[in-house]
Design goal:
This protein has 14 helices and 17 strands. With about 375 residues, it is of the alpha/beta class. Bound molecules: N-(iminomethyl)-L-glutamic acid (NIG) and fe (iii) ion.
């Protein structure tokens, strides 16, 4: 089956094979068998089995959200309210979600995850990474990655989110469990392993053990670091060749130099700064230094419960010094780099047919109209999703 999307007023391809021309006007494209088969001038569009008339609106690549924690139960709206009055975010709240998640049935977690996936699709996200990390037992962590794998191939084992309450007095034994039995149970359902480096979570040395064990089990590496302080996690991520280091809010000059010289992507999470009232990372400085950046949502019940990539883009422009095109690129092709995926995040020939028709004539409206639903259609693998 093929689908022609035509009458596109403005097409943002961000095609790495055509770096001089990230944006085209009066364009069309054809998706065949789930992949982009043709991109060109609207007047030359070849015939296809079906047609989506963009009616002169803008089309952008589907958003690639490379960081989320959407397998959970319960909520922590009370913590959010307290933060708005000046109470700082701490990792301690994670254990409240762990208790609620452990108590939930498989069906309840599956239904909540499905609702979240529908929510992100409606906001234009076509690729999403989903982490475990609210189970912290072998069975509960395995259940989380198993459920995540039902909705995405980008699944991440985050047994090292915080130390499980049962191991509060013996954190070393918990790290051993994560690296041993828990990893063995979760690796078959996971593509990635992640660890939260923070004063309330894991040290750099503990994280090194976890990441090395994950790598030995065949998983790719991701790291949460620098959320609340420059904590040495960026250097570890670069040392181990992690695909991405996420948050990266607090960085030293050496961290920036190390990232610029490495392939590790700095994944910035502006919705967390928004929801924790923290200063935003200086994305302008990172880009100028030559660091590859991504923007992701980090949707989770604690530090940020928004899954909106358009809002993250708006914040990246408003608060982090990016141009609208840089912010959109970070949320699409940047997220793809953070997931080491060449087939998503852009609309070059051969890429997956994942795109968004905006209810707007120009992609800049993503930041120009913050908080306004601007997704007219989400197309996933050439299929127009119900909107
Ligand atoms: O990325 N930082 C660690 N994990 C999440 C927060 C999880 C939570 O507070 O429940 C984050 O911000
Ligand atoms: Fe996170």
């Amino acid at each position: 089956m093929s689908l022609a999307v035509d009458n596109i007023g403005q097409l943002v391809t961000l095609d790495p094979a055509d770096p001089e021309r990230p944006v085209r006007v009066d364009a069309a494209l054809v998706i065949d068998d789930g992949r982009i088969a043709w991109v060109g001038d609207a007047r030359r569009a070849p015939a296809a089995d079906s047609r989506l008339d963009a009616r002169g609106r803008a089309v952008v690549p589907g958003f690639v959200d490379s960081h989320s924690h959407l397998v959970f139960a319960g909520d922590r709206a009370d913590e959010w309210e307290a933060r708005m009055t000046g109470v700082p975010y701490t990792a301690g709240g994670i254990l409240r979600t762990v208790a609620a998640t452990r108590a939930a049935s498989d069906d309840e977690l599956r239904a909540r995850l499905a609702r979240h996936v529908a929510e992100v699709r409606a906001q234009g996200t076509t690729t999403i990474e989903v982490k475990s990390g609210y189970g912290l037992t072998v069975a509960d962590e395995q259940r989380a990655v198993r459920l995540a794998a039902e909705v995405t191939p980008e699944t991440t084992f985050l047994g090292a989110h915080v130390v499980a309450p049962e191991y509060a007095d013996d954190r070393d034994a918990y790290v051993e469990l994560v690296c041993g039995e828990m990893l063995a149970a979760c690796a078959p359902h996971s593509r990635w392993i992640d660890v939260f480096i923070d004063a309330g979570a894991f040290t750099v040395d503990e994280a090194r053990r976890v990441l090395k064990a994950g790598r030995a089990a065949g998983l790719g590496l991701r790291v949460h670091a620098g959320q609340r302080a420059a904590d040495g996690g960026v250097a570890l991520a670069v040392e181990l060749g992690a695909a991405s280091v996420d948050h990266a809010t607090h960085l030293t000059g050496d961290d920036v130099d190390a990232l610029a010289a490495a392939s590790t992507v700095a994944t910035l999470l502006p919705l967390v700064e928004f929801s924790t009232r923290q200063p935003y990372p200086d994305a302008r400085h990172l880009i100028n230094a030559g660091v590859t950046i991504a923007i992701a949502s980090d949707a989770n019940p604690g530090s940020n419960y928004s899954s909106s990539m358009p809002l993250a883009i708006a914040l990246a422009v408003r608060e982090m010094g990016l141009t609208p095109l840089e912010a959109l690129a970070a949320a699409t092709v940047g997220g793809a780099a953070a997931l080491q995926r060449g087939d998503v995040g852009h609309l070059g020939v051969g890429a997956r047919g994942d795109l968004v028709v905006l209810q707007a004539p120009d992609f800049r409206w993503l930041g120009y109209r913050p908080g306004v639903p601007l997704v007219a259609h989400t197309v996933l693998g050439g299929e127009v999703l119900a909107s």
